[in-house]
Amino acid sequence: MVEEREKSGRAVKSLKIGGKEGKMMLEAVLFDMDGVLIDSEPWHLEANRELCAELGFKLRMEEYANFIGKSSSEKWTYFKTKYDLGPTVPELVERENRKNIQMIPDNGEGLIKGVLPLLQTLQERGVGCGVASSSPLAYIEAVLEKYKLYPFFQAVVSGENMAKGKPAPDIFLHTAKLLGAHPEHCVVIEDSEHGVQAAKAGRMKCIGFKNKNSGEQDLSPADLIVDSLEAISFHSLESLLYC
User: Fold this and answer.
1) Are 155 and 130 in contact (CB under 8 A)?
2) Are residues 91 and 179 in the same domain?
3) Distance between CA 189 and CA 31 in Å, rounded?
4) Residue among 233, 172, 227 at smallest CA distance from 205
5) Known catalytic residue: 106?
6) At residue 154, what are phi and psi to the nearest 5 degrees?
7) Rounded Cα distance, 91 and 86, in Å
8) What is the tens place of the pLDDT at every residue in 176-216?
9) Do residues 149 and 98 share a domain?
10) Which positions ≥6 away from 60 have C-beta within 8 Å?
11) Counting CB atoms within 10 angstroms of each CB, which of 120, 128, 176, 221 has the fewest?
């Protein structure tokens, strides 16, 4: 049973997972958030452009793209060093976080097509679901509240408190642990190169989602690549475990 609460994330409800011994059961599906649950990369880019302008430099797209899927701390550590910025890294992360939260649409726009039917199917089937995002926890929670997605997730984890961020597998392994799921019985859905690498490093099956707003991402290590979440069925998720 999952009832753990901690800084790196939280289990939202209790869940018991298990299947018949000897059969490969789908125990959990782990979702990245930005670019997978919500099409947030455009407003993230705008928030970063605004903040960089306030700090006195112009954001270069090729540099920004390198940090898609990674934590804000890693990104601002890089920019602070390169541009000799005055604020501390935590202060920079907080300023970006405030801008991102302010930019969440009030009308519910931005939810990735196919997300709700997929989450509803997994809920009906009793499959554990977790959010494993590199974003700060306050922002993750704001998004899940705004889009009313909390009821679908039993674990919510932020990479900001992980010892190693994506492409290290720590965040996915921790989320699986919160759900009581074995890594080999988990499927990760990711839109970034670093996220796919993290899932595979954690011995999990991975679906790469080609989101045009996530930039040029090498998703080739994924076990399955899709252009739409509508292409993902319960059967296709289960089938990945036997690949």
Assistant:
1) yes
2) no
3) 5
4) 172
5) no
6) -100, -10
7) 10
8) 999 999 999 999 999 999 999 999 999 999 999 999 988 88
9) no
10) none
11) 120
Whether 32 sits among the annotated catalytic residues: the reply is yes
Residue 225, classified by CB atoms within 10 Å of its CB into exposed (0-12), middle (13-18) or buried (19+), is middle
Are the beta carbons of 165 and 74 closer than 8 angstroms? yes
Tokens read off for 89 = 């890294």
pLDDT at 14 over 80: no
* CA 128/CA 150 separation, integer angstroms: 13
Residue 52: CATH number of its domain: 1.10.150
Q: Which domain holds residue 58?
A: 41-102
Same domain, 187 and 228: yes
pTM: 0.86
Token pair, residue 186, equals 């988990």
**pLDDT tens-digit series, residues 104-118:** 998 888 999 999 999
Total of domains in the chain: 2
Is the C-alpha dihedral spanning 177, 182, 184, 190 positive or negative?
Answer: negative
CB atoms within 10 A of CB 79: 21
Determine contact, residues 72/88, Cβ cutoff 8 Å.
no
